[in-house]
Input
Amino acid sequence: MKLRPDKKKIKDFLVMDGWVVILIALVSYVGFYWAIEAIDSIKDYERIDYFIESYGLKDNTLAEDTLALLKENGVLESNVYDVSPDSSTKNAKFARFGAYSDICVLNQTDLDDVMEVIGDNFLPLSSSFKAGYEDGLSKNYSYYSAYDEDYAIKIYDPADVSYSGQFTFGNLMTFAKDGADPEAYYLVIPLNSVNYGAKTVNGFAALHHFLKTYEAP
Amino acid sequence: MEKELIGPVASQKLKMQNLRLALLGVAWLLLFGGWVAVVFLFQSRAYEYLWIALGSLVSTLFLAVLLYGVLKAAVPLWAALRFARKVAKKDHVLNDIVLVCLNKELETYEGLLTRSVTVREIDEGTVWTIRYDAEADLSLKAGGHYAVETYDEVLLRIKEKE
Output
């Protein structure tokens, strides 16, 4: 039996089964695209994300600065997500972006709402954790504590002007709005972040940089 | 001219062809696996889309050739082997015939691509059609006198008579 390909057999094959070849090409492309995209997509440990609850972010270069600071440490992307305290989609946005961010700013009310399960959502700021970012900071930070652990760094307190005056976070976010009760704001570290020792320690550098940037001169 | 189209010798050749084809198929699959491994080992973020395009293009060629091998070589070969095994267990018919005409149509019979010839039996004058492997290298002439061995009107062996 002649098994060697010849022009006629190849032509017949392409005419009769060309659609299968096209299907193979499509499946092959989709397969490679899906697999290589999955491999090359930016991972949690290559990204520093901020989630900020405020009445509006001001012009800032936070993401660009973070990227410039940590590019050599393997950070490829930085995003800043923001949500208004009175937004109807606040909880959904937090669940989607905030819970997986690396640095998160929430107001007093929201923090009080999750106080009972705070350990299930945020990292405790133990002394060893604080040692990771505190070096070089010059202000006196207060903390939000629960169950004998510090969980959040206070960055704004409307009732304590001298405390808030240590910082310039007002250059980044808007803490108050007409008609809304003034509230304190805190910085928390979501438990899902992998950048505080789980995969990298880039979170500490980003946190230090964030706090240092907004310390008043 | 005497030729065995289907029989012990032809079956042996088919089995050898089948073995070679199987080995070629395995080698081809290994080569394809190697290519996929190369793509995933060397792909990089900087050239991500180039590797996706190259990977899918070369893989399509690998798989298209494999498909061709299965459809155009393996399937007919397996059909021929199956038919040869079946024929080996059956009684064959021997006739002296005169070839009336060569038919142009191709026809698939039990997975085999066949041509056909119209023949007239010398003893009884019966006219009928005999199929034979379309790729068999036979130099048949209309009006020629042949001794044929057939099964189910498929030519197994042919001998040209003086």
Remarks:
- Chain B has a mean pLDDT of 93.
- Chain B touches chain A through 30 residues (CB under 8 Å).
- The two ends of chain B are 10 Å apart (CA to CA).
